[in-house]
């Protein structure tokens, strides 16, 4: 079952939780959601009215936490730690998992050195254990670890919540896909036509040769 | 001979009551089942062979037990006594298990666990016994040498919904999904193993160690393109030379695809599938995901 | 629909489907 199906029920659960709570009790909902081991999507929760109403209150910092988990990375958290509440270990782990997804958006081959910096990991064993246990085995990424080249090759990475302004580039990429696919189909059609034509010509040529052979045989007889 | 037979059976009963299993077995095995003086009918012979084998197995004596299951194997096919046949099958499975022919044992346990009847003769077959047989089947498969054959048997068990109710299911799932097993999981699995399944092998590893190391090595081959022996040893919790030795054995026995670069002290894992096939597979996967998105969109009326 | 957008976002990164040097040789 893919990650979106797995987390759909948790999204619904926390959206309902948020809809039924107000003020300070929303803080627990946010902390619980950003700690849940199977939840990697936060846009739906961010758009719940009662959450939005936290803006401007003493709890607005928890909207920043939700935004951080929706779009941010571990590095973002470290550079804003002063203005954000401390994270519990399960939140730290999740933010690092989400950071990997963001890194995988940029490139499919992630160097260990980059990962160790971005994920605050001190050695290869620890990095690989994190990638194996917390990322590959939790289903958010699939890929291969290459120790010789010291990199992680990503084959699949779950999608994160879209950052504002990302939609445009997605549409661009999709339309590029579309035209490439159309061109591909056209060129495949051309190749098929070319192959058919060639085989016709070869058959005709084959026939001519055979006829010539027959003639020569008759002449000899 | 008649009197001797009766005395032997009586004495064997007494030894059995004292849980002196091997003495009871030896007492019964003194009965001359192939006597030319007095013909014994086949079902009597079969029942004695099975009884003696079961008694030896109570003392984990697979060698003597096998002697009598071999004798019984010539008699069992003509037997109409289902209870005896079942007991014979249990003995045969347990002997394979003790001889560490785990995959063969697993298949025999599995066959036993699939019995449909709940009453054979005047014997009742309770669910718990079948569950034990199923658990034994899964345990033996997990202990079997990691490789394609074991994966096929694991897949059968993983799809058998009876397994999902077993205590051993969580580890069956991880093994089936070819996940690396960590020490706490291995320790909890070890709790329910029999003595011979934790016995020490000549290379100073236990049967369980070997099974777990090979399993984790095969699981690592699905995650890594290549790995240094240093790191592989750290991952498996064993010395790097040992990791190299086990890896070379598995590659040699064609249970894992790869090659060893001793100069660099690296192992390079090969994929079962050719690159072109993988390419096809990735594109198929992509198209399926695209279809899933389109299906979701049409379901949502977008 | 956030879930769909996340799925599409994940899809976009699935290409190129494979990049290894070995693949180039095999493909050629």
Automatic annotation (TrEMBL), chain C:
It is found in: Cytoplasm; Nucleus. Component of the COP9 signalosome complex (CSN), a complex involved in various cellular and developmental processes. Belongs to the peptidase M67A family. CSN6 subfamily. This is COP9 signalosome complex subunit 6. It comes from Papaver somniferum (Opium poppy). The chain holds residues 243 to 270 of 317 of the full protein.
